[in-house]
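Side project, low priority. Logging it here so it doesn't get lost.
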Amino acid sequence: MASTVFFTGFPGFLGRELLPRVLERAPERRAVCLIQARYRPQAEAAVRELEARHPSLNGRIDLVDGDITLPDLGLGATRADLAKEVVEVYHLAAVYDLAVGRDLAMKVNVEGTKNVLDFCEACPKLERLQYVSTCYVSGRHAGPFAEADLQVGQRFNNFYEETKHLAEVDVRARMGRLPATIYRPAIVVGDSSSGATQKYDGPYFAIRFLLKQPSPFAVMPLVGDPSTVRLNVVPRDFVVDAITTLSERDDNVGTTYQLADPAPLTVEELIDAMERETGKKLLKVPLPLGLAKGAIDHVPGVEPLFEFPSHIVDYFVHPTHYLTENAQAHLEESDVRCPRFDTYLDRLVDFVRSNPGVASKAMV
């Protein structure tokens, strides 16, 4: 029987591009993707698309209904037989929503990860757990945050950050029993070649905010000191390329990689780049953080008009600098490098112009 890769988070934003890369490098393996039943039509369509693009994947991707929030992943009697076949697990499933409530975030991000870890421990042939976390397990830690750092007394911007932190604490606690590697992407946007994304968040909010203003001029509120705060943004293709390359190594069990830009733009540089690419003349208005968030949350019509949620504002005053020594060292022999945000921003802007109806809500 073919060895099996168990995959959560398909057909999500990263998962639908990472899965074919994983299978193409290991033609003797098949994938079993855990999906929620309500997303089966989207998942089946994604499989058909992948098989059309990559004929070598035909018949090698199986979809099984389940739920990471259930103790047996919702697999029932099939769980034990599946566990016997699994040699590698990719755990990407999470609530990727900065506005998520704590109960849901705990259920999916923390309890869901615990259940996946329990499944991994039941897999006698497991060679590796590839776990996708986030740089923002750092919370609002001020200053450098290394790949080895995790519990540094930080506070968090939101429940997404807090629960991804708690989930990573659990993963690290099991490293004595499980061969795990952790990947922490920064803020992920669409592909650097096309700008395409499944949902608008992060810098897309700012791009859309500027484009929605009808005149050649556009107001851009600024909080904090935009000349010193850096916004760490990475394109999806870099993250997928990096995980594909790093997950092939056999010498990185227990390693954490921050998949971040080692030299990110300051907020000022980022806004100036947006001014150039949108063709708007920006009227920059300094505002206190509390006033900016309060206006969005409490002044009628502001958020629906500009579709710029208040929780995004926190990242324009984010105090953390992400160190990437492990990632840079282990990617050095490959051609995988993180491109500067301003070298592909034009593609993001073009995508937003051409696709104004893309949603901002996460799959849950």
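Brief comment: DSSP finds twelve helices and 13 strands in the chain.
Revisit when time allows.
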